Amino acid sequence: MSNKKVIIIGSGIAGLATAIRLRNQNFDVTVYEANSYPGGKLAEIRQKGYRFDCGPSLFTMPQFVEELFAISNRKVSDYFEYSKKEEVCNYFYEDGTRFVALADTKEFAKEAEKVFDVKGTEILQYFKRSKLKYDLTASLFLEKSLHKLSTYLSFDTIKAITRISSLGINTNLHKLNYRQFKDPKLVQFFDRFATYNGSSPYLTPGIMSMIPHLEQYYGTFFPKGGMYSITKSMYQLALDLGVTFHLESKVDKIVVANKKAIGVLVNGDHIASDIIISNMDVVPTYQKLLPDQKSPEKTLKQLRSSSALIFYWGIKKQFQELDLHNIFFSKNYEEEFRYIFEKKQVSADPTIYVNITAKNESNDAPEGCENWFVMINVPGNEGQEWDEIINQSRKNIVDKLSRLLNVNIQELIETEEILDPRSIESKTQSYQGSLYGSSSNNKYAAFLRHPNFSKRIENLYFCGGSVHPGGGIPLCLLSGKIVSELIEKDYKA
Known about the structure:
Blueprint: E1 5-9, H1 13-24, E2 28-32, E3 44-47, E4 50-53, E5 59-60, H2 63-71, E6 82-84, E7 87-92, E8 98-102, H3 105-115, H4 120-142, H5 149-152, H6 155-162, H7 173-180, H8 184-191, H9 211-218, E9 220-223, H10 228-241, E10 244-246, E11 251-257, E12 260-266, E13 269-272, E14 275-278, H11 282-289, H12 297-300, E15 307-315, E16 325-328, H13 333-343, E17 352-356, E18 370-378, H14 386-405, E19 413-419, H15 421-428, H16 445-448, E20 460-462, H17 473-490
Parallel strand pairs: 1-2, 1-14, 2-10, 7-16, 14-20
Antiparallel strand pairs: 3-4, 5-9, 6-9, 7-8, 11-12, 12-13, 15-18, 15-19, 16-17, 17-18
Helix pairs in contact: 1-10, 1-17, 3-4, 4-6, 4-9, 7-8
């Protein structure tokens, strides 16, 4: 492989993964990052003795991270450690029902039979079907470019097509779950997995019932040092491999000549490069970095995924009943998603996600205290009165948590930081503050996502949550793999 020069715009998880893979292919890799830190959404906040993870709060499919160290001939344990969780998540319902989702599938089914109106065998059958959907489609939808003919000329594709009736693409996730389970609490439980890609269970296709398989089969994990240690380990690996990083270096434009990307403009300086990769959201990539180029308007106008309103609270107490991941369900789940995707507002009774790391990492909070990551799903930023929404949502969240935990939460909050769609958009360049790029509220969504390469501009590629295969840590890591394989094929010496 010739030692060609690559510039990557943005150091999110996908950008870091792409940098590591291309450096292993002997490319000369330089990363430009507008922020003073790497990681994109997967960052951290430190405030008054508390440390908070900013982005994704659940770590699944660690094999995709470990693969980066394996191909680099480095011991992952020298950079990164994590442990598997025996309890995946704690679920709280308004009527006092509580369900502990266990990592062991058979134990999960037993516990579900105790708590919900369901037989354990029904749960096991559901997971079996989830696995089948994943096994049939992963190599097609997640591991290869959907925009190359070669992807469709494979045995895996033919196998998936012959079993298409079993994939659930012609119904939505809620209807699929409603037909499977008679207990509304259990339907709500499995509907929730639509939020893993920022979609609505009442709109996203039933094939998304494969998502529980990823969590239940592969497990969920907690990194030593918190989620940000994923970023730190990948960043250090990239440095050790010889990747060059320029932090606080905002790229102003991708330079195109004769339909070829030939470099970037940074602070007025033209930096030449053989290959340009944007890890920036695809919408601002075209709007800000390629203003003179024709953009794929139909792709850019797709419905965006949900965003988030997050409160980072330093809590002057430790809660024995809460551990790491906790979800407090709303009474009316359908109304909640109707507000988000139709009314572009926030439900008065949202589902609340509370994540805590302080019990596992003593330096994440002062002695006897906890760091709370409190999140609700909200619509993207389209000019709503966010200050008003934040104030009312905060009151609703505090009231709900206080009621369900039987304690005055407001009195325990000693420090607070807030992240909303506006600040998500400004800090990470995610269009409208969406967490996963375009939503998956369409059975053709996977095919409508922007490809990992430009069809009009040679030498220009894309990685990250706004392009194929989608958002979330595992998919962003896979997008880096897809891009590196495309480049390897395109630039073979």
